[in-house]
Amino acid sequence: MSGNKHVLRPFLLALVALALIAGACGSEDDTEAEASSSGSASASASGSASASGSASASEPADESSGSASASASEPADEEDAGSDAGATVTVTDVIGQKEVPITDEGLYALDEFMGTLLLTLGIESVTTAAFFEDSLLAPVLEDRAELVPFGSVESVAVERPNLILGIGHPNLMEIETELAGIAPVVLPDFTTDWKDQTRLTAQVVGREAEAEAVIAAVEARTAELAAAMEEAGLVGSGAAIVQNFGGDYFFYGPTTVSGAMLADLGFTRSEAQSGSDNFGFIPIGPELVPEETAVPYVFSIVTTDAVGGTAASDDPLIDPEGRTVAEVAEGWTNNTALGAWIVLDDIEAIVFERGEITDLDGATAAFEDLLAAAGG
Q1: Strand ranges (DSSP E) for the chain?
Q2: Which of 20, 61, 214, 317 is a Cys-bridge partner for 289, taking CB atoms 3.0 to 4.6 Å apart?
Q3: SS3 74
Q4: Burial, 58: exposed, middle or buried (Cβ in 10 Å; 0-12, 13-18, 19+)?
């Protein structure tokens, strides 16, 4: 592990930069923003992009619909490559429409989010690159996958993968063409719903049934917690999800897993936190932070090793008087089933005082609980 715990993750740095650019552009649309981006964040994913990650049959879907197309075909005389030998599927990821083999063998995950997603689908052997140097997910991956440093395209080639997967991060999008020279590449759009990302990934690894079981487990627990919220008279409670990047404040919008889960549980968000967002982040000026956090529940996202500290309560712009201000780990940024499960764990701990807010040890427990609930 790198000793990089106290600095922003590459994922967050790139997205904050993109959100700042998009915010400065005002009414400039997503297409223009993508065309004007440069450097490591040049190929940004739009929240309204066509890569929704859903499936279709046989013929590619009408691209104007914005949904992913998936169809299985069976070319003859192809080498066995996993659970669906010889079959292919047509999907639309953040790059575009492509046909890829269906296989659950020889997988290479470009980042920890994708690595844990594959593990939740019951795939036991996944080489995963430590792209984010994510301290929360590291314990989960170290015990169940081959966790390797994120290096170069050449370092991926050495592994001789059958299929390369990762989230649609701008830095990964930038090298997709080079990676495709090694093996087929699938990069689900991280701005789409976590369920869509799960289903898209499941299609290309032949684990649709496992994906539906995981999604059903999260949905069932969400329904139970939502019922508890209603019984306690908490439905409609105002909430804010905020992160302070060295004085630049961002709220997490409805396309993030944390924003979506709060909505499913019955929390309400202000108009500023519920509208159009940029890559999941909604930038807000410091002068509006006191007003936007004057709600019963404020969830402040901090680096994992800072959970349980006083950063949020010490923030002069967030008044803790008369409200619950809780620090939560960066698992709230993980648009996967595990991220959703961690949000549920933390809401139960914060709102109902059952259990503990997820930390390094808690992430592994959350993963095991999720698998058990899904019947894995």
Answers
A1: 72-73, 88-92, 97-101, 107-109, 126-130, 146-149, 163-165, 185-186, 239-245, 248-252, 281-284, 297-301, 324-328
A2: 317
A3: coil
A4: exposed
Structure-block tokens of residue 178: 């080079």
Residue 273 gets the label, from left (phi > 0), alpha (psi -120 to 50) or beta, of: alpha
Q: Are 361 and 339 in contact (CB under 8 A)?
A: no
Per-residue tokens: 344: 């549920």
Q: Per 3-state DSSP, what percentage of the chain is helix, strand, and coil (rounded to 5)?
A: 40, 15, 45
Token pair 């302070």: residue: 244
Closest-CA residue to 306 (of 5, 1, 12, 9): 5
- Per DSSP, 163 falls in state E
Torsion 40-42-47-51 (CA) sign? negative
Specify the higher pLDDT residue, 314 or 136.
Answer: 136
pLDDT digits (tens, 9 = 90+) for 340-364: 999 999 999 999 999 999 988 889 9
Q: What is the mean pLDDT of residues 232-244?
A: 95
- Whole-angstrom Cα distance, residue 73 to residue 91? 12
SS3 224: helix
Average pLDDT across the chain, whole number:
79
Rounded Cα distance, 240 and 262, in Å: 9
Q: Which two tokens stand for residue 218?
A: 């999260």
pTM (two decimals): 0.79
Q: H helices within 322-359, ranges in order?
A: 337-351
308 against 274, higher pLDDT: 274
> In angstroms, rounded to a whole number, what is the distance separating the alpha carbons of residues 129 and 112?
7
DSSP 8-state code for residue 11: H
Q: Which of 27, 48, 190 is nearest to 110 (CA)?
A: 190
